[in-house]
Specification:
The complex is a heterodimer. By secondary structure, chain A is mainly alpha-helical. Chain A has helices spanning 2-15, 19-46, 55-67, 69-72, 79-87, 90-95, 100-129, 142-173, 177-190, 202-208, 218-225, 231-261. Chain A has twelve helices and no strands. The radius of gyration of chain A is 19 Å and the shape is globular. Chain B is mainly α. Chain B contains 14 helices and two strands; from the N terminus they run H-H-E-E-H-H-H-H-H-H-H-H-H-H-H-H. Chain B is globular and about 55 Å long. Chain B starts with a helix and ends in a 6-residue tail after the last helix. The chains are: A mainly alpha, B mainly alpha. At the A-B interface, helix 2 and helix 9 of A face helix 2, strand 1 and helix 9 of B.
């Protein structure tokens, strides 16, 4: 465990070095957040009764989404890992007395967290001071606040576990472009980063709600705004735990399977 | 001019040929392009299932806007992609080599890359046009069809100009500034709806600062009959003027250029 923590710390500090990139990211996320809010406002004006979310909850959703984009975005792949699998350099990593799954898991998490830490605060601080209902509101009660933090941690673990399955899948296919592309498009859409899940047709929502993608950024962001409240909070968190365990088990199983079968062709 | 086109065509063939060496990869990337913009489309579809209208524009009308922006942006990306990846050109000294050649610099950058994988997205724009053109409630006539073509040309020029700005900034910073992406990718992303729905202030920016609205929103208003002044149809041609300050910035950059020495 200690070695993975050390590895995590190393990658985390590494990630903190890219400050100029972070500023550019912050500006972009701001512009994006504003435009998204204006866009949803236009739909609100068109038909307020059909609006499936509280306006304030939606604004909070958008700002949190922008602030923590790098934490949850499924397309934040690490090119180096794919490359090492394709080029065969992964053999060096396999020689080490560490589990490649745990090491990469720590690495993905460190990368996502370091990027988010650099970006989130300016966005959150400005968003809090924007006039209601366009800014970032505060969570309604203690359950929302605690639920948000819990769901966020679980969501991050799930996203990492999900991307681990994709990394492991690359061992089987070598050329991962297709797999990666389908995975990020599908999860991006179904996790609610194009439009939040409440805006999907009602029939689709009943199914989407229980898919693993809904347990990613959808869960914490909607618990925060009070869109998911009461007993649903516990249900949602339970679901997150379930999916996380499933993805970790699948990923670990793939790791074992790969170790038995892998052939490194020179290089 | 004729010679230039011939030379450009030669480059296109070379790019095509080299891409066809990796057919599967080409195909996959094209499919990926399609999927990405398809999920944006699905998002719009679901929004209209729920709301039916936005600011008095129907689903078909918004799709027309989306198709115009998507097609214009994609065309700019296909032909001007060299500017988008220009930072590497300065970093690896490629630009020094270009300056020694007896052809225009802009021409050479254009030739450097022809991004044919974007056909996936272009195909999507065509499909959406096929749906939107008969379903947007516009009574088409020769004039309006010409207006639509102007919109596409204006949009391509505006997005291409933004790519040139992106490259010109590299002369000063040595690496691409991601901020410009707000205007390129952001302009495309939020151009899926008429630029007018974002409020007066955004519309002013989209009219006077970067003329997205000139090639999309105003002529669109004429097409759907919200405006009757015919000159609205010619505004996309005005938006092409945007290329002039962008080229001046590029020139200024070239004059300012110091080799990185590698």
């Amino acid at each position: 465990m200690k070695k993975y923590l050390a590895f995590f710390r190393m990658r985390f500090i590494h990630g903190l070095q890219y400050r100029a990139a972070a500023w550019a990211g912050i500006m972009t996320q701001f512009a994006w957040g504003f435009m998204e809010i204006l866009m949803f406002q236009a739909f609100y004006r068109a038909d307020p009764t059909s609006f499936p979310m509280d306006q304030q909850a939606l604004s909070s959703y958008i700002w949190l989404q922008q602030a923590f984009l790098t934490l949850f975005a499924s397309w934040q792949w690490e090119g180096e890992l794919f490359e090492s699998i394709t080029s065969g350099n992964v053999a060096y990593e396999l020689c080490r007395p560490v589990s490649i799954y745990n090491m990469w898991f720590a690495r993905s998490m460190a990368r996502r967290m370091s990027r988010a830490v650099l970006r989130c605060f300016p966005i959150l601080i400005v968003a809090v001071f924007l006039p209601a209902p366009y800014g970032l509101g505060l969570p309604k009660d203690v359950i929302a606040a605690v639920g948000f933090v819990t769901a966020m941690v679980l969501g991050l673990l799930l996203v990492c576990a999900f991307s681990m399955v994709i990394y492991m899948g690359t061992f089987y296919t070598i050329s991962s472009a297709g797999l990666r592309m389908v995975a990020s498009n599908v999860s991006d859409f179904l996790c609610g980063s194009i439009i939040p899940l409440p805006f999907f047709p009602d029939a689709a929502q009943t199914v989407l709600k229980i898919l693993p993608f809904a347990s990613m950024n959808n869960a914490p962001l909607r618990i925060y705004g009070g869109d998911i409240a009461g007993n649903d909070v516990f249900f949602t968190i339970g679901l997150q735990v379930m999916w996380m365990v499933i993805f970790v088990v699948v990923g670990k199983w793939m790791e074992q399977d790969i170790k038995k079968k892998i052939v490194v062709q020179g290089g | 001019m004729g010679k230039g086109i011939k030379l450009y065509w030669k480059h296109v063939q070379i790019h095509l040929h080299s891409m066809m060496q990796y057919k599967v990869s080409f195909f996959m990337t094209a499919v990926g392009q399609f999927l990405t913009s398809f999920s944006v489309f699905l998002g719009m579809f679901f929004m209209f299932q729920r709301f039916h209208m936005v600011d008095n524009y129907t689903y078909g009308q918004c799709l027309l806007c989306y198709a115009v922006t998507l097609a214009a942006f994609t065309m700019a990306e296909v032909f001007f992609r060299g500017f988008d990846t220009f930072a590497s050109c300065i970093a690896n000294g490629e630009f020094d080599r270009m300056m020694l050649r007896p052809k225009g610099l802009i021409f050479q950058v254009i030739c450097k890359k022809v991004e044919l994988t974007k056909v996936g997205r272009l195909l999507q724009a065509v499909v959406i046009f096929c749906y939107a053109i008969p379903n947007c409630g516009v009574e088409w006539n020769g004039m309006k069809i010409m207006g639509l073509i102007f919109m596409l040309i204006g949009g391509t020029v505006v997005f291409s100009s933004l790519f040139i700005v992106h490259a010109a900034i590299c002369f000063f910073t040595l690496e691409g500034l991601e901020i410009v992406n707000i205007f390129t990718y952001g302009g495309q992303e939020f151009g899926k709806y008429p630029y007018g729905i974002y409020g007066k202030r955004v519309l002013a920016i989209c009219t006077y600062l970067i003329p997205y609205a000139l090639f999309q929103y105003y002529p669109f208003l004429y097409l759907i009959g919200h405006r009757t002044e015919i000159w609205y149809l010619f505004l996309p041609l005005v938006s092409c003027i945007f290329v002039i300050p962008c080229l001046l910035l590029w020139r200024f950059g070239v004059r300012h250029y110091k080799s990185t020495g590698s």
